[in-house]
Amino acid sequence: MVTEIFAAPKSAPVHAWMPACPCGSGCIDEGDRVGRVRVAARVAGVAGLLLSFPVVNGLTPAGRREPLHRGYARAMLSVLGIRLSVIDNRFADTEPDPNAPHPTAGSEPSRAAKRTRFAEPAQGALIIAGHVSWSDVLVLAAVQPLGFVARADMLEWPLLGKLAIRMRVIPIERESLRELPGVVARLRDRLRAGDRVAAFPEGTTWCGRAYGSLRPALFQAAIDAGTPVQPVRLAYRDGSGASCTVPAFIGDDGFTTSAARVLRARGLVAEVVLEPRELPGSDRRELARRVERAVRGESGSPHRDWIEAGSTRVRDPELGAPRPGHRGGVIPIRAE
Q1: What is the pLDDT of residue 193?
Q2: Which of 123, 171, 248, 290 has the fewest CB atoms inside 10 Å of its own CB, making it the most exposed?
Q3: CA angle 289-284-154, nearest 5°?
């Protein structure tokens, strides 16, 4: 019933509805690495962007800040060595060429990435995606700046907390269910005002090859506001297009450990697939199920290549090949 952006090390749930994830260090790939000089250059680039953003943002007129924020998010991804790939399945003219080579880290953003938006200006939208890493925030903001529903203590984090405040984060106390109706009400008001707000209803981060179910509570805000929901399939891949768990923020990972793994990685690609928008309807559970099917890539497909084990969804190991248009192989995951 709750959502967050940055996951803390996993521990025993505080209450029965507290989201939990079985993913751990065994899920993590190290992948190819860059040298120490490149890592140092990336660290310097990140520091420069974080230090310059408040100054440049303050000097920029409010009406021109959206392109600035989008540019900074893309610059941060570039400095981290993460290539952004955007596939828009909402309109036929933006569908990707299945024979086109897979993008590599460091190359120019695709034409689709440059023109795609979650919604038009002043058009409210609830953006829903699976949750893998702290970098999810940068990836989504690089498509179009937006607000987020996030764990409350993130506002106190050094540097990142200040950025969260500027992004108008809606904080939520994961340990307190009593505060959830207030969060839903704030989210509803933001949507009614024409804001774009992203949420990760799994409630915690997963490795990207296994997933949690989407909790329905936050979908009530879209229903109350009469706002469409934008499902986003978010995945991380290596330079060859295979599924990659390097950016995952799971298990006993601290932020420093996870960030260091990303800074060392070579060829990371963040793939964002925008599926057709879902109308809110009147039943939040039914809406959550519809959006979950879209987020997992199950909409309109006669095949189901994910199986469910409790609250965990993993790729079916009996399927020996990916579906047409799906890059990467089938990787069996064991869920306890």
Answers
A1: 95
A2: 123
A3: 90
Count the Cβ atoms, other than its own, within 10 Å of residue 330: 16
| Run of H or E residues at 93 | none
pLDDT at 254: 81
Write 52-59 long-range contacts (CB < 8 A, 24+): 53/163, 54/162, 54/166, 57/166
Identify which of 105-109, 111-115, 240-244 has the greatest average pLDDT: 240-244
**CA separation for the pair 90, 116 (Å, rounded):** 10
Tell me the percentage of the chain whose pLDDT exceeds 70: 71
Round to whole Å and give the CA distance between 255 and 133.
Answer: 10
Taking alpha carbons only, the member of 79, 77, 69 closest to residue 48 is 79
Nearest by Cα to 128 from 215, 258, 255, 19: 215
Distance (Å, whole) CA 82 – CA 187: 30
Q: Per residue in 208-247, is it b (16+ CB within 10 Å) or e — as a string?
A: bbbbbbbbbbbbbbbbbbebbbbbbbbbbbbbebebbbbb
- Taking the CA of residue 42 as centre, how many other CA atoms within 13 Å lie in the half-sphere pointing to its CB? 23
Q: Which residue has the tokens 């969060």?
A: 183
pTM summary value: 0.78
The per-residue pLDDT for 298 is: 72
Could you report the per-residue pLDDT of 13-72, keeping only the tens digit for each? 555 556 778 888 888 887 899 999 999 999 999 999 989 998 999 999 988 999 999 999
Output the six-digit token pair for 69: 């924020």
Supply the pLDDT for residue 315. Answer: 45
Q: Is 305 exposed, middle or buried (0-12, 13-18, 19+ CB in 10 A)?
A: middle
Domain annotation for the chain: domains and CATH numbers: 25-302 (3.40.1130)
Residues in the chain: 336
b/e code 83-117 from CB counts within 10 Å (16+ = b): bbbbbbbeeeebeeeeeeebbbbeeebbebbeebb
